Structures are given as C-alpha cells and as structure tokens.
Amino acid sequence: MNFVECHDEPIHIPGYIQSFGYLIGIETTSLTISFFSENISDVFKIQDREDLFGKKLSDLPDVFQTVIDSDIFKDAGFLSKRENETYFDKIVIGEKQYHFSVFRANDFIFLEFEEVSENPQKRITNKYDNFYIIDNEQEIWDQLLNTLSNIINYDRIMVYKFMSDGSGKVIAEKTNDHFESYLGLHYPEHDIPRQARELYKKKRKRIFSDVYSEPVRILSRTETNIDLTFSSSRAMSPIHGQYIKNSGASSSFSISIIIDDKLWGLVTCHNSEAKHIDLEDRVQAGIFTVLASNAYSSFKAKKELEYRLDLNEKLNQLKSEFLKHGTLFDSLDSNRSELRLMPKADGLAIISDTETMTDGLTPDNETIDRIIDWAYQNTSQNIFISNSFLKDHGNELNLNSNTAGIIIYFIERSKKEILIWFRKEFDEHINWAGNPEKTIDVFSKDGIETKFISPRQSFEVFTENIRGNSKRWGAKNVIAVNLVRDLILETSHKQYITIRKLNDQLKKVNEELDSFSYTISHDLGTPLTVMKLNAQMLLNSLGEIADKDKNKINSIIGEIDNMAEMMQNVLQLSRAKHSEIQLETLETNLTIRKITENAKITYDSQKSMVVIKECPEVLADKTMLHQVFLNIINNAVKYSSDKEQPMIEIEGTEAGDQIIYRIKDNGIGIPEENKHKMFKIFNRMDNAKKFKGNGVGLSIVHRIMKRLGGNVDYESNKDGTCFILTFQKPKFVKL
Predict the structure, then answer these.
(1) Residue 19 near residue 216, CB atoms below 8 Å
(2) CB atoms within 10 A of CB 261
(3) Number of other CB atoms surrounding residue 173 within 10 Å
(4) Neighbours of 542 (CB within 10 A)
(5) How far is Cα 514 from Cα 630, in angstroms, rounded to an integer?
(6) pTM score, two decimals?
(7) pLDDT digits (tens, 9 = 90+) for 542-600
(8) Which pLDDT does position 233 carry in this prediction?
(9) Rounded to whole angstroms, how far apart are CA atoms 724 and 651?
(10) pLDDT tens digit string along 512-537?
C-alpha cells in the first residue's frame, strides 16, 4: 500500500476533467489530435471516437468546422501565442453556444469547451472604482466580496489570507443562512499543500461545479500523465473533493490573490448546492479581484511610506542625540528608551564587552549572558529574529516570560557590541476551523489502495492555546531594526573622531573670523572718520553750488555714516562673544526709561505712548544689559512709529528662578516666513525695508542673552510683536 503526503499528491495530472468541460489535445508539431475527454462526442457528432487519434481538425471539416472558423484558430495563429496563456472565443456547435478556450503548454495545444450559462441574477455596478478611494484594509476586502456576490451569488464568499507560518486565516466573509460563519478562523498549512499553492499561482481561477459528479476520463493512445495545470476543467483531487464535502458544500470556486508576485491569499467561495459559474463571470470575478489586490497593495505601500517617513524623522532626532556623545556606547545608553521603542519592544539590552545596560522588561544579566553565548554559537548573521525564543530555547537557557520574542543585532562581533530587543510572552488563543491534527485515511483508485492525510470530518471551532511565543515581529519592526543598524553604522566611533576633529577645526575658524571682524571694525573706524571729514570740508569749501552736486556729496556722507554704524554693530557683536562679562544684580527701571526717551527722539516719534510697568532686578552684565534693551526698545519704537497711535508696553515678571521681560509694540509685525532668519546677522524682514537698519541688532541681542545664561524669543502677528527676554533671577537682593 502506498502512502501519499498532501504535499506529494500529483494533482496537476489527474487523468480526468470535470463533467462541465470538454477537452481536445493537439500535438504542436503534427497538429494532429493526441488526446481528448471521453465526453467529447456529447458536443461533436462523432461516429467513432477512435477515428480522432492522429487526425487533424481539417481532416474532419463536418465535425470541427465551427472550431476551424473561429478567430483564435484561423491560420494556426495560436502557435505563435505565448505558452500557458489562454485565449477565449465563443462558438456555436449544433444549436448551443459554447465558450472556446485555447492555450499551448508542454508541446500540446489544449482546446477546451464549456456550455455558455446565462446568469439572470448577476448585478454589476460601477463600484469597482471605489477600491482606490478606500483607505482601510478591511473595507477593501469587504467591498470585493460585496461585488463578487453580485456576480456569482454563492452561499459563502471568503477572503483567506496565508500567514507567515503557512497556515491561513479568514479575514473577510459574506455568507447567508446556509452556512455558519468562518470569519476569524485559522486553517493549517496542509489544508492547501505546497503543490496546490503553486497551481494557484499559475491557474488563478478554479471552479468545482459539482463535487458529487463523476469526473470524465481523458483518452489517449500514446500520452500518459497529461499536465492539466492550465485547464479550467481539470478534475479535482479526491482528497480536496472530500474536504469540500465535509465542509457541507457541493460547489467551490476560488480566485488567487497575488501581491508582489506572491500568493498572498485566496477568494474562496462555497455553495450548498451544485452550481456552475459561467466562464465570463469567472473571468470578471478575477478582474475585480485583481483590482482589489492592486488597491490593497497601493494602500499598504502608502502606509509603509508614511511609517518610513515617521521613522526617518525619529531617526534624524536620534542622530542628533547620538552626535552629542563621544562614544557609541554612551550614545546608545543615553537613548536606550527611544531605541527600545523603535521596533516596539518591551525590553532592550545594550552590551559592550563586559558592560550591560537595560531598559524596560528584560531578563537578568546572567540570562542575557547565556543568550549571548547561545547566539555566538548558533547564529552567523548580524541580525537574528525569533517570535518563539521562549518556546524553542526556554528550558535550555532557563528563560522567563520576558524573553518569548527576541531580536539580536551584532554591532561588532569581535568587540562583543550587541543590541538585544525583547518581547514578553503573549498568551495567544487560535481558533481553528476543526482540529488541525493530521489523520490518516485510505483511498482506492483503479484497484490500488493509497494512504493519505484525511481531510477533517468536522469544521467545528477548535481552540488551541499557544504558549512560549511573543507577538509577531512584523515587517515594520524589522525595518526599524535595520534603520537603527544603519544609524549606528553611520555614527560609528570612527566617524565620531572625524566629526570631533572637524568641530575643533570649525571652532578655530570661528574664533579667527570673530577676531577678524573685531579687527576690521575697529581699524576701519579711523579711515572712515577721515573720509567723512574730507567730504564735509569739500562741501563747505565749494560755496554756492548746484543742489544736485550738494546732494551727491551728502549722499557720500550718509553712506559713510551707514558703513560706520554697520561696523560699530559688528564690533559690538564680536564683543558680545569675546568680552569678559561680570554678572551682578542690576536695576533696570532707569536704564529702560532713558533708552525709551532717547529712542522717541531718535525716531521722531514723540507721539509714541510707552507704558513701563514692573521692572524687577536681573542678574546680568551692566554693559551687555544696556545693549540688549537698547536694541529691543529701539526696534519697538522704530517699527511702530508710522502708526497713528504707537503703543509700547514693557513689563518684567518673576517665574521661578527666572525674570522674564516682555517688550510689546503695535508695529508692523514679523511675517511667518521670516521666522527662521530672525536672529541671523544682516537679515532683515521683507516688510521692514522702508525703515533704516542693517540687520545686526537682533544678532547682538541673541548672542548676549546666550552669554548671560538667558534667552530671547518673540511672538508676532499682524497687530504687532512682543519680544521675550529671559534673565537669571538674582540669588540675593541688592542692598
């Protein structure tokens, strides 16, 4: 007695077809008939079927004239068609209309016929367009099932998804009162064995109209084991037929769901009574399934892109944090919580030679050491991933429930630099459609008894408790780990050294630039003064000259003044960085009032109303404090001077260990698009061009406030601007 595993059953060469179909096989070289189905005489008027062997169709024009005249058969053009690709036509034989299909495979041309079946219940709408506007995975499959039910009208239609371990799960379903629901149930891998999955990839629509009908034998004088992989009427496997009967169905129809060139799942349809689906309806159902598959693929690609963008943003933040530290281990240690959450782990261990740092739920250090020893002995790749580490190695390594799932990343094997992510045990319950355990049965064919894996007799829900596993590490988690790996490689210790050298060089360059700015601003002051005096003397010595010439000389004097002011500001900016500071407790009221009065005179804005409220003492350098208030108050008066009622409010408040001053005006405001360059030197707002200035003042304020240990910020809209100065609060009250 033979024994046949499910995976070994030769289902592509059954030697039979289903009773709804009729088949003729033609040898491609001689174009003569090599085999045909036993029922072929039910369609064509043939006196003796034996006479067909070795004959061309053209030798029997009275029998096959309608076939010969069909569009896809004329001039033997099908010989140049691509192998395994099916071409369709409709022909009339006798008084009946038949679907006529032709494909070429394995040195034979297959001619298939099946009677056209009208479907008065078919209802098709334009909802196929909706697949691409649905932004929800479940709704895509539900929409597909609703659409298909209008075409085939079977009692149960399901979307069956293959899981990573080869098993399957019903993720969407549309059923009526004839069948109980299978939604959410799992099916073991051997329900759809490997060779069946290969056939589903090649022949993507399979119909078993009546599982109780007798199959039709294929007759041939010379050919044995005829490959019917691409035949629509290929007979079903006896094991599969019994499986469908046990489920309570009499008809079955399936459509392959192909995503990224892989068999992602199936649309599986069952009917309680025998029912044939017309070829055109099967083709149309396949088209809708392709549309839904493409929509799902686009949806997943969109979600993955969104996930990657979010992940990249987090990686960029991590990269900035990494670069703050001198060693890789310090970077990892300082950011361990963020690194743990990247792949959504419950725990993380960072190992560097003899030192181990952890975050979240992790085993003790001794257990971690045992895991590391195991990894060195049993893994060769830099990244190892397991969802069942506790189940597979729990006893061996004396693991606890925090180590059910694991990802090990070897940063550098030789240096024992390792990251290990952990996931705790997930108490999982899987509902199977019947007991998934295999049982052995005996099948007899042509007098030969064969043992095979018996299909389940019952599909009643069977609950299995799964222990020792974690929640599955998904594709997104793996992506996150790979990005962490890339980040580490990019910011490795060698690059830290390079970056620190560059920072030292940049620091020296900045110091030299500041020194240069100070020197230029100081040394050019004298020649500018001489130029201005000479211009004024020239103007006075010329006596009465044309206004045009006077304006030219006055213009020169004005530009000299502008240049002198700009260089003075650059000098102040340099001093703000390099000059010694002496922090002391300072009163601000008199300084603010004096600066305010001078500003009103300078900008000819006596109408400006300045309200000065509380002015608490601050901890600052006297000269620098004056420079800060001078620039901010001058700006407030200047940029509100063209208002009918200019208003400036100045108030200081205490906030913990800080003193916060707010200088608010009702001036021109700061456009949002200028926000990024507010404190950069020589940058001016687009709406401030009509006011005199050179864009240095706020740079001075920004640099001074940083040196004083404070900060400068602002709030602005079309109604004005409020600058916020944050100082240190004096520790002792000034007597």
Answers:
(1) yes
(2) 7
(3) 20
(4) 12
(5) 23
(6) 0.60
(7) 666 666 666 677 767 766 665 665 566 555 555 555 556 788 899 999 989 988 888 88
(8) 94
(9) 10
(10) 556 555 555 555 555 666 676 777 77
> Helices 547-578 and 622-640, interaxial angle, to 10°?
140
Averaged pLDDT, 197-213 = 93
User: What end-to-end distance do the CA atoms of the chain give, in Å?
Assistant: 110
What Rg do the C-alpha atoms of the chain give, in angstroms? Answer: 42
Give the burial string for 297-326 (b: 16+ CB within 10 Å, else e): eebeeeeeeeeeeebeeebeebeeebeebe
Closest by CA to 180, choosing from 170, 190, 191, is: 170
DSSP 82: P
Whose tokens are 């240096």? That residue is 415
Nearest C-alpha neighbor of 450 from the set 2, 25, 75, 140: 2
CA distances to 45, 95, 101 from 89, rounded to whole Å, are: 21, 17, 6
Could you give the CA distance from residue 170 to residue 615 in angstroms, rounded to a whole number?
Answer: 72
Residue 622: which residues within 8 A CB-CB, separation 6 or more?
582, 584, 586
- CA-to-CA distance for 397 and 394, rounded, in angstroms? 6
In 323-364, where does DSSP find H-type helix?
Answer: 328-334, 336-341
Retrieve residue 711's tokens.
Answer: 């900060």
**Residue 510: other Cβ atoms inside 10 A:** 11
The C-alpha angle 79, 85, 86, rounded to 5 degrees, equals: 90
Non-local CB neighbours of 355 within 8 Å, separated by 6+ positions = 329
Q: Alpha-carbon distance 152 to 266, whole Å?
A: 16
Two structure tokens written together for 455: 């299909």
- SS3 percent helix, strand, coil of the chain, rounded to 5, is 40, 25, 35
pLDDT per residue over 613-630, tens digit each?
Answer: 999 999 998 878 888 898
CA dihedral 520, 526, 531, 536 (to 10 degrees): 140
Q: Are 107 and 18 in contact (CB under 8 A)?
A: no
Secondary structure (3-state) at 519:
helix
**Where are the alpha helices (H) located in 403-546, listed in sequence order?**
475-490, 493-523, 525-541
Closest by Cα among 551, 581, 553 to 703:
581
Beta carbons of 722 and 714 less than 8 angstroms apart: yes
- Give the C-alpha separation, 361 to 352, whole Å: 19
DSSP lists the bridge partners of residue 723 as 663, 714
CA separation (Å) from 125 to 30, 53, 288? 47, 47, 12
Distance CA 76, CA 84 (A): 16
Tokens of 15: 């030697």
Q: Which two tokens stand for residue 684?
A: 């001016």
Relative orientation angle of helices 697-707 and 622-640, to the nearest 10 degrees: 150
Question: In the block, which residue shows the tokens 């083709």?
Answer: 283
CA distance 267 to 460: 21
Contacts of 61 (CB under 8 A, 6+ apart): 68
Q: Residue 623 contacts by C-beta under 8 Å, 6 or more apart in sequence?
A: 579
The residue type found at 222 is: T
Residues 6+ apart with CB under 8 A from 617: 585, 586, 587, 588, 659, 730, 733, 734
Is residue 646 within 8 Å of residue 610, measured between CB atoms?
Answer: no
- At 118-140, the pLDDT tens digits run 887 777 655 555 777 788 889 99
In Å, how far from its chain's centre is CA 478?
Answer: 12
Residue 700 backbone dihedrals phi, psi, to 5 degrees:
-65, -45
Please list the residues that pair with 192 across neighbouring strands: none
- pLDDT computed for residue 2 by the predictor: 43
Is the pLDDT at 258 greater than 90, yes or no? Answer: yes
**Long-range contacts at 255-258 (CB < 8 A, ≥ 24 apart):** 255/204, 255/205, 255/285, 255/286, 255/289, 256/200, 256/201, 256/204, 256/205, 256/289, 257/159, 257/289, 257/292, 257/293, 258/201, 258/204, 258/290, 258/293
